[in-house]
Design a protein that fits this description.
Elements lengths: L12 E5 L4 H12 L3 E6 L2 H13 L3 E6 L5 H15 L4 E4 L14 H29 L2 E6 L11 H21 L4 E8 L5 H10 L3 H9 L10 H12 L10 E4 L6
Parallel strand pairs: 1-2, 1-4, 2-3, 4-5, 5-6, 6-7
Helix pairs in contact: 1-8, 3-4, 4-5
Length: 258
């Protein structure tokens, strides 16, 4: 008899922050394909509408929710509204993120604080809100998007610090929430072709194709990453097959990183 991984998310309510584009949208689309109702949470109303429409046009279930993850009160309101309308959240993907790249000696307080605010404070706010509902049902999957930059990256002191902090956050949450049937893991992408890396190429004054070629040269598998690669890893952590895995960081980087 053929073996089939238990990746079905049928009946699950999944919230994806920063789900309107890039990696977040790829995760939302993959989760919807596997049967989840996906709540796309983003600051940009236009990309929310586009993502929801795309999922629904493919027969998936999705709803859009305007959200700034830095705003704790708003986070609580949105998660409560999701529970009241669709049911209790059982999957959370902390994906919302920004970059404000700058060398240390030039970095402003705003550039530091804004990145820390979105990544660390945002993950804290959303995880705190989601776990209230997960504890009630005795089940939960929390997936947080870190990065290979957590290992250090020139010009990204703020971003690297935030992504490294998220790894400690994930491990601590795993210890606290494990007894309630909730797992907490991180996916740490390497070089992924996305809006964020396109913005980095523009900042460096390089054509994106040249930037991709440059990055690919040092990737062992010989290609750049795509948002769908990260979505596949997130799906693994969201399903039943990973129920005995918690507090871990999975590098999706085309080679070993940590």
């Amino acid at each position: 008899m053929a073996y089939s991984p238990r990746y079905s998310l049928e009946g699950r309510i999944a919230c994806v922050t920063g789900g309107g584009k890039g990696i977040g949208r790829a995760i939302a689309e993959r989760f919807a394909k596997e049967g989840a109702h996906v709540c796309i949470m983003d600051r940009d109303s236009l990309v929310i509408e586009e993502a929801v429409t795309a999922i629904q046009s493919q027969g998936g279930a999705a709803s859009g929710h305007h959200l700034d993850v830095k705003d704790q009160k708003k986070v609580e309101e949105v998660f409560q509204a999701v529970e009241e309308r669709y049911g209790r959240v059982s999957i959370l993907v902390n994906n919302a993120g920004i970059t404000r790249d700058q060398l240390l000696f030039r970095m402003s307080q705003e550039e530091w604080a804004s990145v820390i605010g979105v990544h660390l404070n945002g993950a804290f706010h959303c995880t705190q809100a989601a776990q209230k509902q997960m504890v009630k049902i005795g089940y939960g999957r929390i997936i947080t998007i870190s990065s290979v930059s957590a290992l250090g990256n020139k010009g990204q002191v703020n971003y690297a610090t935030a992504k490294a902090g998220l790894q400690g956050f994930v491990k601590s949450v795993a210890l606290e929430l494990g007894p309630f049937g909730i797992t907490s893991n991180a996916v740490a992408p390497g070089f992924i072709e996305s809006d964020m890396t396109k913005a980095t190429a523009r900042r460096l004054g390089k054509p994106f194709a040249d930037f991709v070629e440059e990055k690919t040269k040092v990737i062992p598998v010989g290609r750049s990453g795509k948002p769908e690669d990260v979505a596949g890893a997130a799906l693994f952590f969201a399903g039943e097959e990973s129920s005995f895995i918690s507090g871990q960081v999975l590098y999706v980087a085309g080679g070993p990183k940590a």
